[in-house]
Structure formats: C-alpha cells, structure tokens
Write a structure and sequence with these properties.
alpha/beta, Aspartate Aminotransferase, domain 2, 2 domains, seven-stranded mixed β-sheet, two-stranded antiparallel sheet, 8 helices, globular
C-alpha cells in the first residue's frame, strides 16, 4: 500500500539487496526505478552508499529492520541519521518492523521528530496470527492519512481489528510464545553446526550460515 501510494511510474524507490521479496514485486507493479543498496562482506548494509542515494532525493526508501532474509539490523544512530538525511531531501522512509518484539529496538520513537517516517508491523510473527491478515502502520497524522487513501479490495475484518486492538493494549501477551521458539533456534544451530559455519545471528531469530567448502546448502538441509 505504501509503495503504491507514494511511488508513480519512473519514481525512484530505494531497496536493500537482498530484501523482502515482495518489495521487488510492488516495484514492478508501480514501474518504479529501483535503486539497490547491496550488502557487503559480513552481511553489512552499505550505509555510505545508502546515504549517497538519499542525498539525491529519491521518492521512497523501504527498509525492513531487521531485514529479511539476512537478519541484518541498522544501529539506531545510523537509522536516525538516514531518516534525517531523507527528511532534508523530501524522501519518505518506510521501516518495516515485522519481527518486533523479537528484535526490541524500534523506530517508533522517531515518529514524533520526522514527518517523513512510516513504521509498519505485523501480528503474524511474535503473536503467530498470520490467519488474521492484520498489520499496522504508524506515523505522523498527515502522512498516515495520505498513505491510507489507497485501499485494497478487501478491508480487514472486524474480528481481526478487535484482536489487534487487544494485543496493542496488552503487549506482554506475546511473551508466552518465547519459551516455545527459543529451543527450536538452539536445536537448529546444533544441527547446522554439523555441516555449516554459522557466522552471524543478528537478532536471535535469524541465523545466516555459510556452508563448508564441500557441501551445498541444499545437501546440508537434506542431511
């Protein structure tokens, strides 16, 4: 919805590479001119390159934080710096926090300072409620109102809205799921450790792996 609202054909859309796959699909739908910011060695985002692009005033930058599939996060100071630079050049910034509160750091606190910032979240990860097809978007009122002008064919149903409001009023309700997924993460690391080198786990919920020289990721998984 955000991409379709703010980006017209030929407008520049900034995405990390690789990133959430649907962002590329939305870019094709709107016929946006995509400018990619690649991940370098050690799976670190080229923040300097991102800042160079932002200084030229693209229409929108969409950044999952943590990113997917890398699990990479931007440090809060870096994130603020990029949002500030985008603000000076009239660029809208959309930060997707789908994995909050697994990853606790958030850009919500920056919304009061920047009228070009939108933060989105999902109820399908920590709460495991993907069947509700429910998410949320936050920003300063004028920006949210503008972004809400474009609606999908089907609105969110009343049951999903009621559940979402309850969860927002009771943020502690996600915690009982934590003991269930943490053993799974530990078990996966133990199994992968037999066949691959695990070289980065930025957020506790992502484990990025590098296969040993004589194995592929597919053969390791099958084993």
């Amino acid at each position: 919805m955000i991409v379709q609202t703010f980006v017209a054909a030929g407008d520049r859309l900034v995405l990390s590479e690789p990133s959430y796959a649907m962002l590329g699909v939305y870019a094709k739908i709107t016929r946006a001119a995509v400018e990619s910011v690649p991940y370098g060695p050690g799976i670190s985002l080229d923040v300097k390159h991102l800042e160079e692009i932002l200084s030229t005033g693209p229409r929108l930058v969409a950044l999952p934080n943590p990113d997917q599939p890398t699990g990479t996060v931007m440090a809060p100071a870096q994130l603020r710096q990029c949002i500030e630079l985008a603000h000076r050049h009239g660029t809208v910034v959309a930060i997707d926090e789908a994995y909050h509160p697994f990853y606790r750091s958030t850009a919500f606190d920056l919304i009061r300072d920047y009228d070009n910032l939108l933060v989105t979240r999902s109820f399908s990860k920590a709460w495991g409620l993907s069947g509700l097809r429910l998410g949320m978007m936050a920003g300063q009122p004028a920006l949210v109102e503008y972004a809400s002008r474009l609606r999908g064919l089907h609105e969110v149903n009343a049951v999903a809205v009621a559940v979402g409001c309850y969860l927002l009023d009771h943020p502690e309700s996600w915690k009982p799921t934590s003991p269930k997924w943490m053993p799974g993460v530990a078990s996966s690391k133990l199994g992968l450790g037999l066949w691959v080198w695990v070289f980065r786990c930025a957020t506790r919920i992502f484990s990025c792996c590098n296969c040993v020289p004589d194995r592929t990721a597919n053969s390791s998984w099958k084993t």
